[in-house]
Amino acid sequence: QLQLVESGGGLVQPGGSLRLSCEASSATLDNYAIGWFRQAPGKEREGIGCIESTSGRSWYASSVKGRFTASRDTAKNTVYLQMNSLTLEDTAVYYCAARTTPGECIFILTTYFDSWGQGTQVTVSS
After folding, report:
1. 10-65: pLDDT as tens digits
2. 34-49 b/e with 16+ CB inside 10 Å = b?
3. CA-based diameter of the chain, in Å?
4. Cα 35 to the center of its chain, rounded Å
5. Is there a contact between 60 and 48 (Cβ–Cβ < 8 Å)?
6. Distance of alpha carbon 107 from its chain centroid, rounded?
7. Backbone phi, psi, residue 112, to 5°
């Protein structure tokens, strides 16, 4: 099973930016769908984006579209989530998750993905 480790979270002011990393180990990120999720206190885990490791195609939830961008670096076996124009509502623990067979972003639902990282905290505050 693919092992994932997120990093890059932290404290940022409204309007600021952060880049999250999701590094994979135990397997090469070939033909995987990598989903990005977040969970705010008292709320359910929300799917916000997905990128296909082979094609690079990506999808985003309306809440982050135009502000967040997923990318991948196959040489580093890492997927990134660039987050711009952050607002207070973006405060949450962010997770990446992976699924293969198929490695396509058919759904951005927690039940669709097999492997999960431990999460990284993003706090947007003035």
Report:
1. 999 999 999 999 999 988 888 999 999 999 999 999 999 999 999 999 999 999 99
2. bbbbbeeeeeebbbbb
3. 43
4. 5
5. yes
6. 14
7. -80, -20
